[in-house]
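Researcher: Next sequence.
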Amino acid sequence: MHAAGKQQPVNCIDVSAGGNLGISGSNDGKVRIWDATSGALKRDLVGHFGDIYVTKLLPSVQVAMTTGADLQIKIWRIEDALNAATLIGHKAAITSLSFVERGRNFVSCSKDGVMKLWDCASQTCITDLHKQPLSLKSNNYLWNCHVAQDAILAPVAASQQQLEKDFGTESKLAICSSESVKLHAWTFATEAQFSNINMKVMQTH
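Model: Next structure:
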């Protein structure tokens, strides 16, 4: 894949499950859709400014989601590059996104120390799952988030009443990593912290 003109570092990519479509984001705020087979540029998604940190294709491969230093989470219709929605809520650069199942809900994390659960349909934040205390001495940024299935939680999830806009989160964990070298795992059903792992301690063993 090659585009003409001055090149900027590519920070993130994603490729469809079938391997036909690719999406990339770079330091100049450009998001590009590619034919992953031929390497041909299909279209630009215009609307961000600043570094792009995350580019994601939804499982349908009809919609993409992007975010980065400008604090905006953008939802795009790939067919015509339409910016269908822009979600605002974080107070610092957004570093990671992860879908719940097919993307009706998703989680985000940011350098503001917060991991959020979002509803795509209403374009609103359902709840803050995790808030990392920040201080002048220690910037506990959140760098990555992931939605994981956990069979241990299935009986717990069955007894919990989900929020109205919560879809497909039963027996799943939202996991995020922080600059404080810790992994934090939260249950969607109870919005309670499931575990807190100090990776620095593990590395010493």
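Model: The longest helix spans residues 154-158. The mean pLDDT is 81.
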